[in-house]
Design brief:
It is built from 25 helices and 15 strands. It is an alpha+beta fold and 722 residues long. The strands form six sheets. A four-stranded mixed beta sheet has the order 13-12-14-15, covered by helices on one side. A three-stranded antiparallel beta sheet has the order 5-6-11. A two-stranded antiparallel ribbon has the order 1-2.
């Protein structure tokens, strides 16, 4: 099994005396089959000490790994091939490795099979005892040894780790100054939530951790978390990581200052960052942050956006590479240079002069950091691919430019806006746009739906048109996925439309998250009912007897069943499931007497699934790893807070206005309308009483007190507030 260079390697191999029957090449799309990618990546990481893509692995006929690695140089017409010398540690090209593998398989097959079996058994043991928690964990309520206790002090340990790796100059977090820098939205969300725990109470800061977290971490630590995350998001927004002419963010940066990106755009990155910037706006009300929110909203709602699917939902990504120019031949065909990374996005100073003219070019160039000799550091351009090229980033603000050029700030803003429009038009008409991966992946779309629901709530009092566009796009995507990627009879979710690839744990986790977000936004019962159905399928087909959820349904294609728990480019599926379960318990335990689309018996059944017990079992399953490395499990840490403090369940009167209802919502709360005379708060055992001001802690400022009612011990909102 090989991924990446397989076809080219084998074609050249056949020309160099390899038997055409020696290998069966399989090219795997890791986004369509993340389960297999993770299994064999675990093997390569364990045997070589590192991993990455392209991932290349040789397998036995029963799918057990024999040898693997990441990038091996591919052949070219000028390559002089030399057979690998037996025992040589550096075999060279991909073809050299093919020759060596053919020799080993032919002369030492029995030994090769035994080694493969031994390695596979070691991987099974490692998965059971180590990072994926399958054997050393017990479920609460059994006669076995109790699980490791998870204290809220672990949040402090995780925060200390992020502080130790924080780049105070440029924002972001890295173990080394030379390492690539990734946005890591899950970590930023975690830090923003800590910061919001001590923010001035308001409607918009109710996404923060609640008591006793502020007391455990301390005021200064919470401030530090907020400042690190806000600084990072502002730095990213101004940097070359962002596409300053159109939409969105690129995947990661090669440099510490974020200004030399890998130019691929991933939909899931931008979806998560939209949520981060909404939280950042709530904390700081910075207009620059709001502008970034608007930009990301356009990326997900504008019909002209390259990732927006007309039928609903969003495509997976935009490539990094493209042709620098495109010219039409006489026969209508296109002729262009070879594809180059970033060709669609980089500019020379001369190009700015040509497109913008002598007056405006210096202003726009200064604003975007464009220099005659280029702005890509030589040490990061060993092959002169970016010679004289510039990656656009915000280097000088309009106020600075106004002083430098002796113009009014309004005139500078006009020049920049006009220049941006002209550059964008030139880019769209004179350059070939990067290819778009048109897969509509259920899990990634779930993240986007959740983010847009968050943005709809954030923008409702600021820009109603954009808020409405967010909600419409989110609901349209959910409708499409239910129609095209969901089997109503079996309850099964599919990874992509029209495929036979069953959904993985992240598809279910993120889609349930999305449906809960839509229900919170709209209170439309079908969203909650579908979330319940998807969770039931997860419980039946993915759950582990030792707690937590496997990455995939059981299949003969998997030599190992992994149970992923860490956060990486996307949040931990098990962490998201854990919070989903706690929300579902709150919603399904209390509906305020309102009508439900589910029958009474079905409602009773969904409560009998013991959502809280399953959530606790997830935490127990990963307890050892969370204690050892809490910074790798921030989604699960958030679930620890929610499980220990409990979800606040609120029932509001049916006539309550949406503006009043929004003030009750927040992280760790569920709000429904019911047949109650005033706002009620309900305990986990089903006892409800009128809401007191002290129940929520983060009540609104005094100027909103009249709308919410006053007086200690009295209900905050009553049925008369209509």
């Amino acid at each position: 099994m090989v991924e990446g260079k397989s076809e080219l390697g084998l074609q050249n191999a056949l020309a160099n005396s390899l038997s055409p029957y020696s290998f069966i090449p399989i090219k795997l799309d890791r986004e369509s089959r993340p389960d297999l990618d993770d299994i064999y990546m675990s093997y390569v990481t364990a045997t070589t000490g590192s991993g990455g893509w392209p991932l290349n692995v040789f397998l036995t006929p029963d799918l057990k790994p024999v040898f693997g690695g990441t990038y091996w140089p591919g052949p070219s017409p000028s390559t002089e091939f030399k057979r690998a010398v037996p025992g040589d540690d550096a075999p060279g090209t991909f073809v050299d490795i093919l020759h060596k593998m053919q020799e080993v398989w032919t002369t030492q097959r029995e030994k090769c099979m035994q080694t493969s079996a031994d390695i596979t058994n070691q991987l099974l043991a490692f998965a059971a005892e180590g990072i994926h928690s399958q054997s050393s964990v017990q479920i609460r309520g059994t006669d076995s040894d109790p699980p490791e206790p998870l204290d809220l002090d672990l949040l402090d340990d995780a925060l200390d780790h992020f502080i130790s790796r924080y780049d105070a100059a440029h924002g972001g977090f890295t173990a080394s100054a030379n390492a690539p820098k990734f946005p890591t939205p899950s970590n930023l969300t975690f830090l923003l939530r800590i910061g919001a725990a001590i923010a001035q109470p308001s409607t918009h800061t109710r996404f923060g951790f609640f008591s006793p977290v502020p007391g455990i971490l301390g005021h200064s630590s919470c401030l530090k978390a907020a400042s690190m995350s806000l600084h990072t998001l502002l730095a990213m927004s101004r940097s070359g990581l962002r596409d300053h002419l159109a939409y969105g963010f690129h995947r990661y940066s090669v440099t510490a200052d974020w200004n030399l990106p890998h130019f691929e755009k991933m939909m899931y990155d931008n979806a998560q960052l939209l949520g981060c910037y909404c939280d950042a706006w709530a904390l700081g009300r910075d207009p620059e942050i709001l502008g970034t929110i608007y930009n990301l909203v356009e990326y997900f709602t504008n019909p002209d956006s390259p990732i927006v699917a007309t039928q609903g939902g969003w495509y997976a990504s935009e490539d990094a590479d493209s042709h620098p120019t495109v010219s039409k031949l006489a026969n209508g065909a296109s002729a262009s240079d070879d594809k180059k990374e970033g060709a669609y996005y980089v500019w020379t100073y001369k190009e700015l002069q040509t497109v913008l003219g002598e007056r405006d070019a210096p202003i726009v160039a200064r604003h975007f950091g464009v220099k005659p000799d280029g702005n890509v550091p030589a040490e990061h351009d060993m092959h002169d691919e970016f010679l004289t090229q510039n990656v656009l980033h915000i280097e000088a603000t309009p106020s600075v430019l106004a002083k430098e050029f002796g113009l009014s700030e309004d005139e500078i803003v006009r020049v920049i806006k006009s220049g941006r429009s002209k550059l964008l038009e030139h880019r769209k008409t004179k350059r070939e746009a990067p290819d778009v991966d048109t897969k509509i992946i259920a899990s990634w779309n779930g993240l986007a739906i959740s983010a847009l629901a968050r943005a709809a709530n954030t923008l409702v009092t600021i820009d109603k048109a954009r808020s409405r566009a967010c909600q419409e796009a989110a609901e349209k995507a959910a409708t499409f996925i239910r129609k095209e990627q969901y089997d109503e009879k079996t309850g099964k979710l599919y990874r992509t439309p029209g495929s036979k690839t069953a959904g993985f744990v992240d598809d279910y986790a993120y889609m349930i998250l999305a449906l809960l977000a839509l229900f919170d936004l709209t209170l439309a019962q079908p969203y909650l009912d579908w979330a319940v159905q998807l969770q039931r399928y997860l419980d039946d087909h993915f759950s582990s007897s030792t707690g937590g959820y496997f990455q995939a349904e059981e299949s003969g294609e998997q030599i190992i069943r992994l149970k992923p728990g860490t956060d990486n480019a996307m949040p931990s599926a098990n962490g998201i499931i854990c919070t989903n379960l706690l929300y579902l318990d709150s919603y399904c335990r209390h509906d305020g007497g309102a009508a439900s689309a589910l029958k009474k018996k079905e409602k009773e059944d969904r409560y009998e699934t013991n959502y809280v017990g399953k959530a606790r079992a997830v935490l127990d399953a990963f307890a050892v790893e969370i204690i050892q490395h809490p910074f790798l499990y921030v989604s699960l840490l958030s679930a620890v807070v929610m499980e220990q403090v409990g979800v606040k369940t609120l029932i509001a009167p049916m006539p309550m206005r949406d503006s009043q209802l929004r003030r009750l919502k927040g992280w760790g709360r569920t709000v429904v309308k019911g047949l109650v005379p005033e706002v009620m708060i309900c305990t986990s055992d089903g006892v409800c009483r009128p809401l007191k001001q002290s129940d929520l802690e983060d009540v609104d400022d005094d100027d909103d007190a009249d709308e919410f009612g006053t007086g200690k011990g009295k209900a905050v909102v009553g049925a008369a507030d209509t």
